[in-house]
Design a protein that fits this description.
three-stranded parallel β-sheet, mainly alpha, TIM Barrel
Length: about 220
């Protein structure tokens, strides 16, 4: 799609809810649907039609990248939700699409090939992913905001390494979605807020942890 299409869409004042999750849970077997690309694609299309949107928004599940990153490092699936790194991981691991990630890509492919809707991909931002990987992100982020680096403080070094690993995981997942046919990407950074960032460091922290990585990733 041409960039102007999205600019015109925004200028028109169109509001588009990401309601795929709501539509999905109208189906009794929603737990099975999220692992079936074609069926999930039909739900995504159903949501777009329901809300009269030209863009087909995928299911918003911001846990997928954490799961993939941890599984690649041998963390059992049963421990993923509660797992936090206490030390810097040395191995990059071998990224593989999880079953749910593969279903998202399948849904995008369905939208691209079976409908006239515009398929949209989605991923969590590197900063928000990092905050899910450690028990207390606020202290090291504050220290980094004062100018400290990983050479000064082990906690900051852990944050820097997890941002790097998270960035690589997210990029590979987005690449898979683009290969499946995504024409636009929603990158979500819910943790980039005044709870995570000191008001005194807000602008600098956003440049360092959010806009810099995000812009470089989707360029």
């Amino acid at each position: 799609m041409e960039r102007q299409f999205y600019l015109d869409l925004a200028a028109s004042g169109m509001s588009m809810p990401i309601g795929t999750h709501l539509v999905l849970h109208e189906h009794n077997d929603h737990a099975a649907i999220v692992q079936d690309g074609q069926r999930l694609g039909r739900v995504v299309a159903e949501s777009a039609r329901r809300f009269r949107m030209p863009l087909a928004f995928p299911l918003m599940d911001l846990k997928l990248e954490k799961e993939a990153l941890l599984l690649a490092r041998g963390v059992p699936a049963s421990a993923v939700d509660a797992y936090h790194f206490a030390e810097i991981p040395e191995s990059n691991g071998e990224f593989r699409l999880t079953k749910n990630m593969a279903a998202v890509c399948g849904a995008i492919r369905y939208i691209a090939t079976e409908t006239d809707l515009i398929p949209v991909g989605m991923g969590i931002g590197p900063f928000s992913l990092m905050t899910k990987l450690i028990s207390d992100p606020i202290a090291p982020v504050f220290m980094a905001g004062t100018g400290m680096t990983g050479e000064d403080e082990p906690e900051v070094a852990l944050v820097e390494r997890l941002l790097e690993l998270g960035f690589a995981t997210i990029q590979k997942y987005l690449d898979a979605q683009i290969e499946a046919g995504a024409k636009a990407i929603i990158l979500c950074e819910p943790a980039a807020n005044k709870v995570s960032f000191s008001p005194n460091h807000l602008a600098a922290d956003c440049r360092k942890f959010v806009t810099g990585d995000s812009c470089r990733m989707v360029a």
